[in-house]
Design a protein that fits this description.
The chain is mainly alpha-helical. It has helices at 44-57, 72-88, 102-130, 143-155, 183-195, 208-230, 243-258, 261-275; strands at 13-17, 22-23, 39-43, 166-169, 175-178. Strand 1 and strand 2 form a beta hairpin.
Length: 276
């Protein structure tokens, strides 16, 4: 008497030829040894885990000089690096990335855009009150003209990064300009690193200050973007991407490096406090 056919309970799998990167014939759902020229089967569950790992790894780009990279080729290179690291972290049985589809890569790249969106979103949420763009009761100026003039003062004056600094009065009654210590921007960074659970990218790092400078520059570029939109007669919203915002990011980093020794020490202390 013939036996009824058995039904597989294992998840669907992807079969590929790792020696050439081309998809191979259908294979058993059992894991196969990575012998050159033979197909390696990767289950859909395992593939999803690797994609999810890569999506988390690419968040680390925000803490690097590539944080605002917008060119397609450069972003794809970052995706490839994240995927490669995710696979290598799983061991030698995954020698290449040929089972990662174009859709997977788009999903990973999209997560980087999503993270950038979190930063610009927080900037939008508080920009109006943080920089006192509202029309004061005692002013006789037109409310819109007042707001535009305020934005121009913060972003278009002698110091186009004035919005990143903080003014306070010291114990002697003197007004002091604390460079790159703006409370609003520091709040964005604190929220991004701690509230959104990204501290692992900076803790236990020998380059903690440098990594924090990168995220400060991203937050600064986002704040500048939001201010410029408030500085128009018709406020509008568009994506926080493109060459303009990347250049502002680079401008902020250059300004960090151009600080004199005294200001650098104070700025590094403020940055370190956010990271602790």
């Amino acid at each position: 008497m013939s036996q009824p056919p058995t039904t597989s309970t294992q998840p669907p799998s992807r079969s590929l030829w790792c020696s050439s990167g081309r998809e191979g014939p259908a294979a058993s759902s059992e894991a196969m040894l990575p012998v050159a020229g033979s197909p390696i089967t990767v289950s859909e569950d395992t593939c999803r885990e690797i994609v999810n790992d890569a999506k988390q790894l690419i968040i680390g780009v925000i803490f690097s000089a590539n944080a605002m990279t917008h060119q397609t080729a450069s972003r794809q290179a970052l995706v490839t690096e994240a995927v490669t690291t995710a696979i290598e972290n799983r061991g030698p049985e995954f020698p290449n990335t040929c089972f990662i589809s174009k859709q997977h890569r788009s999903e990973i790249s999209g997560n980087l855009s999503l993270v950038q969106g979190e930063i610009i979103g927080h900037s939008w949420a508080g920009i109006f009150t943080a920089y006192k763009l509202y029309h004061p009761k005692y002013s006789t100026a037109d409310p819109v003209e007042f707001r535009i003039a305020k934005v121009q003062e913060l972003t278009g004056g002698p110091d186009p990064l004035l919005f990143m600094h903080e003014q306070y009065v010291d114990e002697n009654g003197n007004t002091v300009l604390a460079k790159f210590e703006n409370m609003f921007i520091m709040g964005i960074v604190t929220r991004f690193v701690w509230y959104w659970g990204r501290a692992s990218f900076v803790t236990d790092s020998e380059s903690l200050i440098q990594r924090m400078k990168f995220i400060f520059a991203v937050a600064g570029a986002a704040t500048n973007c939001t201010l410029l939109k408030q500085g128009t007669f018709n406020i509008f919203v568009n994506p926080f991407t493109g060459v303009f915002h990347e250049r502002k990011f680079q401008e902020i980093l250059a300004a960090f490096e151009a600080l004199n020794e005294q200001h650098q020490e104070k700025t590094h202390t403020a940055i370190a406090l956010v990271a602790i």
